[in-house]
Amino acid sequence: MATEFVAGDYDLRGLVKLIVTSDAYQRAHAPVDIEEPRRLQMEEYLFATPVRRMIAESLYDSIVTAGHLFEVKHSPGRNERTIYETVRVPKAGAEDSKGNVGGDAATDVAMTGTNAMMSQGMSGGGGYGLEAAIELDFAALLKEQEGDDEAVALDNMKAMSKEEIEAQRLMAMRNARRSSMEYEETKVARVIDDNPSFSSSLRMQSPAPDGHFLRIFGQPNRTELGDLRDDTASMRQALMMLNGRITNEASRVGDLEPMYRLLTGASVDFDSAVKLAYLEILTRRPSVTELAEAKEMLAEAESPLIGMADLRWVLLNCHEFRFLP
Amino acid sequence: MKTGCAGYHLSRRAMMLRGGAATLLGMNVNHLLAAAGKDHQAKAEHVILFWNGGGMTHIDTWDPKPGRPTAGEFRPIKTSAAGVEISEIFPLLSKQMHHAALIRSIAGTQGDHGRATHQLQTSFLPFPNLVHPGIGSVVTHELPNLGDLPAYISISGQAPKAGYLGQRCEAYFVANPGDRDPYLAFPEGIGELRGNKRLEALSRFNQRLSGKSTDSRLKATETSIDDAVRLMRSPALDAFEFSGVPTQTMQRYGNTPFGRGALLAKRLVEKGVRFVQVNRGGFDTHANNFDALRDHGEVMDPALAALIEDLADSGMLEKTLVVMLSEFGRTPNVNKDGGRDHWASVFSCFMAGGGVKGGQVIGSSDEDGAYPKDRPVNVPDLHASICHALGIDHEKEVMTPLERPLKLVDEGVSISELFA
Fold first, then answer.
1. Cα–Cα distances in Å, from B137 out to A186, B28, B140, B321, B384?
2. CA-CA distance, B274 to A185, in Å (whole number)?
3. Is the ipTM of this complex over 0.90?
4. Which candidate from B180, B189, B220 shows the least CB-CB separation from A127?
5. Closest-CA residue in chain A for B55?
6. Least crowded by CB within 10 Å, which of A299, B296, B349, B350?
């Protein structure tokens, strides 16, 4: 391995790749069908890694990976839907105290949902914002700030105390109320291509906002030393996995992923489809009984695509996916 | 969701049955109380906690100081409780004050938002290597759940964490009261039939692994799924749905997020929810205090008044303790920006129902509203009183996961005058 490392011009990434793709690394710690007392004994003597639940970030990323959600998996137009938003627009012709004509203030359109955390990813998400990949814009964060007026203003903001910011907010609230500008609420329909794509939790702010998928699955908020990772089960976690958008989208079969061709068209191959699902989600092949059971699910469903979505949903929700190894 | 205590899984019906059987067996009252999770006889079964984040001024709300230089812009008004006056920003609530008690002598010690919030919500001062549970978690840890809904629900903001009491005592979070919560139903496009088939298959798959394992984590995960499914199928979920609520009722609460929060809180306790926390911020009025408070009054007054009135009319007020808390008060002096700054030395809180004797004021501040004059109340006394109202022994010790014994409430003493 040392030779390989030197030969590869000290490429760490390549070294890691070499290790994780090696046969030795990929072997199970213990046989899959091992009896529990024997496994516990192996764990005790450090022959096998103790069974553990995936941490929040791994779980999130694993679902995104297994479900082909890093990139869009449906052709454009297949996920179109109409969403309705309530927006606040200035009444036509109304003028505020500064003489701005309200009519052209289309840029002033504000979502009425005030909860900053929820409003992110709300549009089209149908209220599933708690699972959104709240991606940080690294390019913008790393950009040189010199001469950038906006960035300087932002720095000044940071220099203000919390109280000053609050005072400013209250003042703005009052001013908004006092101005004679009149607003009305209207419902606007908009067609969007709601093609799901998620990002890695590695690219998200940490800790994630309160109530986010990662926090629900035990990511600590790092404000206190005593705030440790929590890996106990809760009903909220169950609701998020059973009914959440990320599991649902990961389960759906997109026409751009390899699975699609095994379930539709001329070369339908249910055996390979089930095997692929098991490999993608549980990283192993199904047993004979599991294969038969899964094929039955595909046959019973309205269509093989729907049956496969159901199978994948079950696999993503089952113990074997969540608990390692 | 059940409470964190194994063996406390008693429904109201089961409690009745057990009560009946107990009389036959001649069990004494203490045994009966223990069966219901209670330490002593108490009237309250539910709590609605309004959390006013930012530090609400006491002088401009519950503790007016007319004629003093610190009085500010508001005048006091008479209320339905003889001799009790509150600020003019609460005209509707003033007619319900015979149900409510005010504590005007809370002697706080923390003037920083973070520390004070921690203390007011948990009774403990922050400690670096402990996450103290909020009072809602304490209540849900100690008392059995009374229905299908989660025992502890936080509206329009996050409640404090359950800390060492564990995940099962965490609050269920409702972001916008009245909005559909997508997590309480199968995902869009998944019908009832298909969803149930998925659940059956999942249970079959899971059994295969957990059936031959003694790992309690697998069982706990299955229990959490069962709890989730029970909640999804519960008729009590109607409480979240406002479509059947008459417009007039919505108007009475003031059709604001806070008003809807108060209305949702009422509907939830009617379905058996133990503890509802309604969060609201914007009280950190360092500038333009009076304009801000006038706005707050417009929002809070109808909601609180309608809530107290409705609970009293339906008889629920007797067993529902309504509390309004904030982390501290604000300075008697008005600053150059027309604001008031942080002031913890004395502040007030509002309590009603759940056995609290209405129409009274406990303690008082000095003539300028700067320090307690008589009957100073320590912050943990409030939590001890909430526990007392519910029949919880607040001195009971619980073990943290690191086997450190801690009392449910940090050295508080219940305020005996509060209760009739």
1. 41, 29, 5, 16, 14
2. 37
3. no
4. B180
5. A163
6. A299
